[in-house]
């Protein structure tokens, strides 16, 4: 008997985002399935966070988003009114932002902020909302959760603030959780705790998790599927095991070459590197944005680059599957 097809929860097709004359995202495609972790990876400035903000309808006022399809559980997010989107956001789809200190309101206690989320979407009394908040703080391994409800954000450590943000995002049992670099500015030990917590919550609650990160070690541990972004485009997308075992796009190969692998990279051996910087992309840009940094670039890279697929593995490059080339792109 064949396995049942996976159910797509979030579908993004040909997403374009612009701010004035700057094209921040140029035709991004991705699908997040129910119960799976989908990681978006790439250098800073490649469009990961702004893609998540566009999905949630939280772009800045000068931001413009267009897409052939932007749907959550079959609902067209582009056609929803602001009031209907507001009801959906925080309820069935939630987001953990990069910096909890600036995301939490310093003028209100943790309990007040968490209770507001629950009462806005689910109703109930303040006491019921605070009981729910206490339960979730405990689930997120916050010590003395009842005490924390009466504290202000500045009274908590960075790790505790991040746990509060995770608990707040879970107040209404969302089906999709977007985590935008949730371990930024945390020390290594706390980072590992937060990531383990997200893995456990995703498994136990059956969440679809869209995790934004530039840490490929995190991706290897957590992802079911990976989409690699560069200069506003998804340049490669594949199941995690396939991407790490058979990286195809030169940019993906370059990223992996920058990661030290114990037992394979000697202490005195230089790490791989990618020369140059991410280009500034204006309207009307054509061709592969990576061509000026790629050792495999050819004249045809300046023209429209095809999206090639093999099973569930896709990439945007003129090079054929299985091409032989250096892992490192350093000059």
Structural class of the helices, strands and pairings?
alpha/beta
Shape: globular
Rounded to an integer in angstroms, the radius of gyration calculated over CA atoms is 21 Å
Corresponding CATH superfamily of the largest domain: P-loop containing nucleotide triphosphate hydrolases
Order of neighbouring strands in the sheet with most strands: 7-8-9-3-10-11-13-12
* Whole-number total of structural domains: 2
Total number of beta strands: 13
Helix content: 25-40%
Summary keywords:
single chain, 331 residues, alpha/beta, Rossmann fold, 2 domains, 8-stranded mixed beta sheet, 13 strands
Q: Concise description?
A:
This protein is an alpha/beta fold and 331 residues long. The protein has 11 helices and 13 strands.
